[in-house]
Amino acid sequence: CEGCGEIADEFTLKGVYQVSSSENYERQEASAIFLIKK
After folding, report:
1. Domain spans of the chain?
2. What is the dihedral of CA 23, 25, 28, 29, to 10 degrees?
3. Residues 8, 9, 13, 14: what is their CA dihedral angle, to the nearest 10 degrees?
4. Among 2, 10, 21, 34, which residue has the fewest nearby CB atoms (within 10 Å)?
5. SS3 for 30?
6. Which run of H or of E encompasses 5?
7. Is 0.85 topped by the overall pTM?
8. What is the rounded (10 degree) CA torsion for 37, 16, 8, 38?
């Protein structure tokens, strides 16, 4: 992706999460990432 190199230089990936549609008020599947600034 455009800009991914800059993100990788500044952050460390700590986790990738999936949220099912039954676990949120919008009733839509969702994904999230957890980044920590280096």
Report:
1. 4-37
2. -30
3. 180
4. 2
5. strand
6. helix 4-10
7. no
8. 20
Within the chain, strands assigned E span 11-19, 30-37
Residue 17 tokens, joined: 């999460």
**Can you say whether the dihedral through the CA atoms of 10, 16, 18, 24 is positive or negative?**
negative
pLDDT computed for residue 7 by the predictor: 92
**Encoding tokens for residue 28?**
């839509």
Q: Could you report the per-residue pLDDT of 1-38, keeping only the tens digit for each?
A: 888 899 999 999 999 999 999 988 889 999 999 999 99
Torsions phi, psi of 15, nearest 5? -175, 155
